[in-house]
């Protein structure tokens, strides 16, 4: 049977981030993609021009439409902008017997805030304990744990805190915002792995975080182990950045054709 993955996230009409990036990633990795919209976002490579949130009850209705009818082999969430929506997502994900990937989206690449300030407590209380893996970048991890992160050792400590104190099964701290090589730290409560790739000199990194977490979700839906899922996804996102498109007037999008092209599939 085809593997089926669900994304619960906001939209990007310019096609680089959010649900659009997630569905492209699922497709390229051979997974049947399904999507629930939290917020319709007017955005492009230059920034966010406007947002229009779904009522939380309608988010619930959308997830029910999927889970009452379709198999779900893995689920991810991205932008969940309000406390009510976080509660609705937690209530629904509790009924889904499949790996759950949290990309704790807080700000767009352009610096625009994408969630309510008060949402952090709900995140910690209801969502993080449900996570098979959570994938914060460094600024997101700093907000979650409340201390600043400078070194790889700090990244390790953040991952450990998120697992042992906040209750996620695993945490992947992404170092895309540091200088030097693109280094991410994964901890699953007992084992560590550091994933590195060369830093690609490009401004076209719109949607990298969405692409990475969607690839992890796709791999988990196919039954790969957590560590293999991150390994494959790191290769996927690095290829997508290496061949990213200079489209639009700002930070261009990742290239989802790159992974298969580099493997001549
Ligand atoms: N210039 C780059 N070259 C190579 N890899 C990169 C580069 N920038 C980011 N990455 C990698 O891309 C992945 C996504 O990380 P990043 O920290 O950019 O996520 P993010 O900030 O959540 O993304 P977004 O901008 O979509 O919110 C990580 O594996 C990171 O190491
Ligand atoms: C909808 C959405 N989710 C996530 C991001 C972060 O890249 C974005 N820009 N837009």
From TrEMBL:
<comment type="similarity">
    <text>Belongs to the ThiD family.</text>
</comment>
<protein>
    <recommendedName>
        <fullName>Hydroxymethylpyrimidine/phosphomethylpyrimidine kinase</fullName>
        <ecNumber>2.7.1.49</ecNumber>
        <ecNumber>2.7.4.7</ecNumber>
    </recommendedName>
</protein>
<dbReference type="GO" id="GO:0009228">
    <property type="term" value="P:thiamine biosynthetic process"/>
</dbReference>
<dbReference type="InterPro" id="IPR029056">
    <property type="entry name" value="Ribokinase-like"/>
</dbReference>
<keyword id="KW-0784">Thiamine biosynthesis</keyword>
<feature type="domain" description="Pyridoxamine kinase/Phosphomethylpyrimidine kinase">
    <location>
        <begin position="12"/>
        <end position="255"/>
    </location>
</feature>
<dbReference type="GO" id="GO:0008972">
    <property type="term" value="F:phosphomethylpyrimidine kinase activity"/>
</dbReference>
<dbReference type="GO" id="GO:0005524">
    <property type="term" value="F:ATP binding"/>
</dbReference>
<comment type="pathway">
    <text>Cofactor biosynthesis; thiamine diphosphate biosynthesis; 4-amino-2-methyl-5-diphosphomethylpyrimidine from 5-amino-1-(5-phospho-D-ribosyl)imidazole: step 2/3.</text>
</comment>
<dbReference type="GO" id="GO:0005829">
    <property type="term" value="C:cytosol"/>
</dbReference>
<dbReference type="Pfam" id="PF08543">
    <property type="entry name" value="Phos_pyr_kin"/>
</dbReference>
<dbReference type="InterPro" id="IPR004399">
    <property type="entry name" value="HMP/HMP-P_kinase_dom"/>
</dbReference>
<keyword id="KW-0418">Kinase</keyword>
<keyword id="KW-0547">Nucleotide-binding</keyword>
<dbReference type="GO" id="GO:0008902">
    <property type="term" value="F:hydroxymethylpyrimidine kinase activity"/>
</dbReference>
<keyword id="KW-0808">Transferase</keyword>
<comment type="pathway">
    <text>Cofactor biosynthesis; thiamine diphosphate biosynthesis; 4-amino-2-methyl-5-diphosphomethylpyrimidine from 5-amino-1-(5-phospho-D-ribosyl)imidazole: step 3/3.</text>
</comment>
<dbReference type="InterPro" id="IPR013749">
    <property type="entry name" value="PM/HMP-P_kinase-1"/>
</dbReference>
<keyword id="KW-0067">ATP-binding</keyword>
């Amino acid at each position: 049977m085809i593997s089926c993955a669900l994304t619960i996230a906001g939209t990007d009409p310019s096609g680089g981030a959010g649900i659009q990036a997630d569905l492209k990633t699922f497709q390229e990795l051979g997974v049947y993609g399904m999507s629930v919209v939290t917020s319709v976002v007017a955005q492009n490579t230059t920034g966010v021009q406007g947002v229009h949130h779904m009522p939380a009850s309608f988010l619930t209705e959308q997830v029910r439409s999927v889970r009452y009818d379709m198999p779900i082999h893995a689920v991810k969430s991205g932008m969940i902008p309000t406390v009510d929506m976080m509660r609705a997502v937690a209530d629904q994900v509790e009924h889904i017997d499949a790996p759950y990937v949290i990309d704790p989206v807080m700000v767009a690449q352009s610096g625009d805030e994408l969630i309510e300030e008060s949402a952090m407590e709900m995140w910690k209380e209801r969502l993080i304990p449900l996570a098979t893996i959570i994938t914060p970048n460094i600024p997101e991890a700093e907000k979650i744990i409340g201390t600043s992160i400078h070194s790889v050792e700090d990244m390790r400590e953040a991952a450990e805190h998120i697992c042992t104190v906040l209750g996620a099964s695993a945490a992947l701290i992404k170092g895309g915002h540091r200088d030097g090589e693109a280094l991410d730290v994964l901890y699953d409560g007992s084992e560590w792995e550091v994933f590195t790739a060369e830093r690609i000199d490009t401004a076209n990194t719109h949607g990298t975080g969405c692409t990475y977490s969607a690839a992890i979700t796709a791999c988990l839906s196919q039954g790969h182990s957590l560590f293999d899922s991150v390994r494959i996804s790191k290769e996927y996102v690095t290829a997508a950045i290496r061949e990213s498109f200079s489209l639009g007037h700002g930070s261009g999008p990742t290239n989802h054709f790159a992974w298969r092209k580099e493997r001549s599939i």
